[in-house]
Each structure stands twice: as C-alpha cells, then as structure tokens.
Design goal:
Blueprint (H helix, E strand, L loop, with lengths): L1 E5 L6 H4 L10 H6 L9 H4 L5 E4 L11 H8 L4 E4 L4 H10 L3 E3 L1 H6 L5 E5 L4 E4 L4 E4 L5 H9 L2 H15 L1
Parallel strand pairs: 1-2, 2-3, 3-4
Antiparallel strand pairs: 1-5, 5-6, 6-7
Helix pairs in contact: 4-5, 7-8
Length: about 170
C-alpha cells in the first residue's frame, strides 16, 4: 500500500531538486532537498513505497539525472503522471525508478489516497475509492532495468551471468 503525493503540470527538474543541491551525488543529501521549494512537506514526510502523482510534462527542463536520483532516494515506489518529459523518463528508467503513464489515474488520484501498483501489468488500484486504473505497462526490457535497480546494475548482472557461462 502506497500513499499519494500530488504535484501539478510542468514540474521541472529545478523544482524536483534545485540547482544549488546538484553539487553532490550523495543520494541521502539529494533526498533531503527533494521538492523542497515546490512541496516543502515532501522530503520530511515521504515514506518508502509512496508514489508521486503528477500532471503533464513531469520532469521538464534540464536533462540532469539528479532529479530522478533525488526522487528515487526518497524511497518512492514510482511516479505516475499524465505525461513525462522524454529525458526525465529515460533518466528515471536508467536509475531504476518506475515511471507510469496513466492519464486517468493521474487526474483522479488525490493527496493521501492509498494505492497499490503492479508495474509489470501497469495496474494502479485506488484502495481509498476502490477503483482500478490501467497505465501503459512498462515494456519487458524496461521492466528488467527497473527490477535490476537501473541500467548499470543490469549490465553488471548480465556480465556476471555471461562470465559464469564461459
């Protein structure tokens, strides 16, 4: 069960993690300042497994990976949105943060609603209002990246598998 945190349309990477915090790659530091200006209550109260729900064009702006890293470092289970900026979407996948395109769910879910998500099936169950939404399921290769924790862990994992077969 996950708690919803809502944000609106066009939330950019500077709103996710302001540029002044991009001088570090320390995930814990990035998590502490995630959404600090846009949603000041977020970093102090988000719990592992919670889900961020956004409107259109989430993650627009700079191509920095810090934004996706900061969100993942807070313990979010996924980000659900009407749409994502392309580079943010790819950065999120690359670090293993599930991102689901689900316009109906993103429009209907409210702050503090409780949901469960199956990223492989693309289902989002609203436990608060007993509704079921269908997101675009992650393609199998993307699901493998997410399950491995990101592209780098997947490549390392595949390298070990290949080496063990030699």
């Amino acid at each position: 069960m996950a708690r919803i945190w809502r944000v609106g349309d066009n939330v950019n990477t500077d709103q996710i993690i302001p540029g002044r915090y991009n001088v570090t790659t320390d995930r814990a530091q990035l998590a502490q300042h995630c959404l600090c200006e846009h949603r000041p209550d977020f970093a102090a109260h988000v719990a592992a497994g919670d889900v961020l729900v956004a409107g259109r064009n989430f993650g627009c702006g700079s191509s920095r990976e810090h934004a996706a890293v900061a969100l993942k470092a807070t313990g979010l289970a996924a980000v659900v949105a009407i749409s994502f900026a392309r580079i943010f979407y790819r950065n999120a996948i690359n670090i293993g943060l599930p991102v689901l395109i689900a316009p109906e769910a993103a429009a209907a879910l409210a702050d503090e609603d409780e949901i469960s998500i199956d990223t492989a099936a693309g289902t989002i169950r609203d436990l608060t209002h007993d509704r079921l939404f269908q997101a675009e399921p992650l393609p199998p290769f993307v699901q493998r990246i997410v399950e491995a924790g990101g592209i780098n862990p997947l490549v390392r994992q595949q390298g070990r598998l290949t080496a063990s077969k030699v």
